[in-house]
Design a protein that fits this description.
This protein folds into 3 domains: 5-103 and 182-212, no CATH class; 110-166, Alpha-Beta Plaits, CATH 3.30.70.20; 217-473, Fe-only Hydrogenase (Larger Subunit), Chain L, domain 3. 40% of the residues lie in helices and 13% in strands. It is built from 19 helices and 15 strands. The chain has helices at residues 5-22, 26-37, 50-64, 78-87, 124-128, 153-157, 169-173, 199-203, 215-223, 244-253, 262-282, 294-303, 317-328, 342-348, 359-368, 387-390, 397-403, 421-433, 461-473; strands at 96-98, 110-113, 134-137, 140-143, 163-166, 179-181, 187-189, 209-211, 227-232, 258-261, 288-290, 332-338, 355-358, 413-417, 441-445.
């Protein structure tokens, strides 16, 4: 995904923030970042002028320091934000922020007739519309958006491809309608509806939706010689051009005291969930949904409590591994390293998880410290996770893990690969009827592809899946504990 310029820009900003923190003058070096990235006289790559570029970079730095850009005080110097980040005691509860300087203020979502319209005699577009939304004016088709139901039949009917669906990427990608245009025409997040799935982050082509980073908070703990323990999610195995043992070595070089696989927790989740599934089937329950996805659990909590009776009560892999680490190392500072923003919500309700960072930020940390993962030696884990636990990061992995411990005649796995308007309707039908025709163990993930499709992943899904499969081939099968 290195060809994505928004990801490259975000990484560049993060690298500079980290380098500034590691320097002997964090405040001043942070203040100078916009001017170093866009020095006077250089060509402006994205915006109208160098001052607009610097303004956007400034807001990206504020987000990278862990603050909400919406409440940005323009008169406040970046060095003041850096100082506040350095002395911060509490993390902002909302993990996302919107950079209005980067937001393009896209035109509203609508079906639109372009000048390519020929005003043909057959009028196929008008004939296809069941809602009377299309009329002919000045020899061209015109759509009345107050009548249009977005069925898109006219788009299919037009022989000249003259009718297009004008999309708003952030709005269209949100499965729960939590991001909308404000009165000033820019995007705005309704945090009471937001499930922190991160789809708007990855789909905005201007990089206007940002995670608030906790990287400075983590680096402070490392600087203070605390026992900072990295908890790496299973999907990380697909993200770097090195294996997980080299990744552990790189994280130790970066200052982490130790590194654990969250796949260890996934093994515990698998065993507990297999037991729960057997019990529910013995009680003649028709189906059970399973997910380690925090976005899905937020969706249930905020939008769809009706399906709660069919949801597994088993805890997530992060819950089990964080509990284990805190039990073994009382003074540990635990840092979950994952693929998306949603885990920040889960961590907020778990006293055993202190901080959350993501693959983009860890990559930036390695770059800032000059650590080449591919050249790192291999550091083994004290306990090797199973093939099934390490497969949790790919869609279908949770179902496959539970199926490995359940009688094949009892289980019928079914995977909902990504939460969107269609799959939400599917879930609503299941809850209403109390049945799932497709299976009795239903895995639900917010992101298509599973965790390898998260908003903070740095590798293409095809490559990530290939890398994970290579690890699974060398891993042992799970056995009941």
């Amino acid at each position: 995904m290195d060809n994505n310029q928004t990801i490259s820009l975000k990484r560049d900003v993060l690298v500079r923030i980290i380098k500034a923190f590691l320097s002997d003058d964090f405040l001043e070096k942070t203040r100078l970042i916009p001017f170093e990235m866009r020095p006077k006289g250089t060509q402006v790559p994205y915006r109208c002028c160098i001052y607009k570029e610097r303004a956007v970079i400034r807001d990206r730095i504020i987000s990278g320091l862990g603050f909400a850009v919406e409440y940005n005080d323009e008169s406040k110097c970046l060095s003041e934000y850096a100082k506040e980040a350095e002395h911060r005691k509490e993390i902002d509860p909302n993990p996302l922020t919107l950079i209005d300087t980067a937001c393009k203020g896209c035109t509203p979502h609508r079906v639109y007739v372009t000048p390519l319209c020929k005003g043909c005699v057959a009028r196929p577009c008008q004939q296809s519309c069941k809602f009377g939304a299309i009329t002919i004016q000045n020899g061209m088709s015109t759509i009345d958006n107050t009548k249009c139901k977005y069925c898109k039949m006219c788009i299919s009917a037009c022989p000249y491809n003259a009718i297009v669906n004008v999309t708003v990427p952030c709005e269209d990608s949100c499965p729960v309608g939590a991001i909308k245009k404000s009165l000033d025409g820019f995007a705005q997040i309704d945090y009471s509806s937001c499930i922190s799935c991160g789809k708007c982050v990855i789909n905005c082509p201007f990089g206007a939706v940002h995670e608030k980073s906790q990287i400075i908070d983590i680096l402070k703990e490392i600087k203070n010689k605390k026992k900072v323990i990295g908890l790496i999610a299973p999907s990380i195995a697909g993200q770097f051009c090195a294996n997980i043992y080299q990744l552990k070595s790189a994280m130790l070089k970066a200052g982490f005291a130790d590194v654990y696989e969250v796949a260890q927790g996934a093994d515990e989740t698998t065993c507990n969930e297999a037991k729960e599934f057997r019990e529910k089937m013995a009680e003649n329950k028709s189906f059970m949904t399973t997910s380690c996805c925090s976005g899905y659990h937020q969706f249930i909590k905020k939008h769809f409590p009706e399906i709660k009776p069919f949801v597994s009560d088993t805890k997530t892999p992060l819950y089990y591994i964080a509990r284990k680490v805190k039990k073994e190392i009382a003074d540990a500072i635990t840092v979950f390293v994952g693929p998306c923003v949603a885990k920040k919500i889960e961590a907020r309700g778990n006293e055993n998880v202190n901080f959350v960072t993501n693959y983009e930020e860890i990559s930036a940390l390695f770059i800032a410290k000059g650590i080449d993962i591919a050249k790192c030696s291999e550091e083994k884990f004290d306990i090797e996770s199973s093939k099934q636990g390490r497969g949790f990061g790919v869609s279908g992995g949770v179902c496959a893990a539970v199926a490995a411990l359940v009688d094949k005649n009892l289980i019928r796995p079914y995977v909902i690969n990504g939460l969107n308007k269609d799959t939400i309707r599917q879930l609503i039908k299941m809850a209403k009827t109390g049945k799932c025709e497709e299976g009795n163990l239903v895995e639900v993930m917010c992101c298509e592809g599973g965790c390898i499709g998260g908003n903070a992943t740095i590798e293409m899904q095809k490559t990530a899946r290939k890398n994970i499969n290579a690890l699974l081939e060398k891993s042992s099968n799970i056995s009941e504990i």
